[in-house]
Amino acid sequence: MPAFHKELFYRGKLSLMRRVFSKPQPKPLMFSGAGSSVTLCRTIAQFGLCKILVVTDKPLLELGIADGIVASLNSMGVETVIYDGVKPDPTTQVVDDGIALLRQSGCDSVLALGGGSSIDTAKVVALAAANDCNAESCKGLNQCKLPALPLFAIPTTAGTGSEGTFIAVVSDNVTHEKSGVVDVALIPRAAALDPELMRGLPPHITAATGMDALTHAIEAYIGTWGTPDTDFFAVAAVRLVFENLPEACRNGDNLQAREAMAQASYYGGLAITNAMVGYVHAVSHNLGAKYGVPHGLGNAMVLPHILELMKGAATDKLAELAVHSGLGDTSESPAALAQKLIDRVWALNAEIGIPKTTDVIREEDVDALVDAALSEGSGYPTRRFLERDECERVIRALRA
Ligand SMILES: [Fe+2]
Questions:
Q1: Is the pTM of this model over 0.90?
Q2: 46, 289, 373, 399: which has the fewest C-beta neighbours closer than 10 Å?
Q3: Residue 39 Cα, ligand 1 centroid: separation in angstroms?
């Protein structure tokens, strides 16, 4: 397709999607700070709920992270049932097993406790259970008539921001192809950003998930769907990540840095809820699908390459972010400021130990990866659409 027609086609498709994504969305009642998970438990009890399904994973349970929360809920008269079957990139089967346990145990509400996979699983469990259906039938946009069961979230990583978004991602049982469940009912009623629960997160996971939050904020800010609201949250998230991610990686017990990163993650989630993501996610999702590259790590590696390509089309937006982040001032040219922001991302990656390359990408897969990334990227409100050779250069640059 000629470049002009391609652009017209993609922009037309996007303007239809924007009607859904640009609507004002509710935000969860949010508690933040050490001990805020206990405040959330009190709120759950005040909602008059009797029995809650705690959706989490086995490693977290073994670390005892759920113990205090379960004890708090029980002491406030809320019974708990634990579903610990969540795995990374949860499949529809993982979600359906959670729905089955919820029905069998008679729970009236759902609490997500964990990273993005636990929160996404809990979201779809709460929606499907209320609508008497399974995960498969929730896939897509607004497939369910009834609101979800009362849903709450306590993230234990700082990156996805899933506690603030109306999207959950589930994988096919066989092909592991990822699909989105998009429904405003997926936004939790209340959530807690409790840094106490993030103390034990290893530095490499802190680094990768933190870069996911930064990617959300930057992609939302430089895309074409930004609003004053999403720009506000994106700017806040970028500043928080630059100022706190290295310390959170170096000193996991620094609760201030942990809380700041949890807030950055939440704000990044709020930004992408209306403004979406871009090519960084398009490439990274496909590295994840093909080789299991963790989402945050993939984003971190891809982010500076895509920003280099977005210079020109997104120079002014990148320059604004640089000024908001204290990297320069408006006496400098937009091009110089944009480069400062990109250089800061390269430097941050180096500081927190993000590798520049990976040995998992096989030469024979490059063409298919480029096709898949370009196809996905055409569905995002990016400031310009990449040419094939540009996307190929990015993927080749990541090969060890
Ligand atoms: Fe992401």
A1: yes
A2: 46
A3: 28
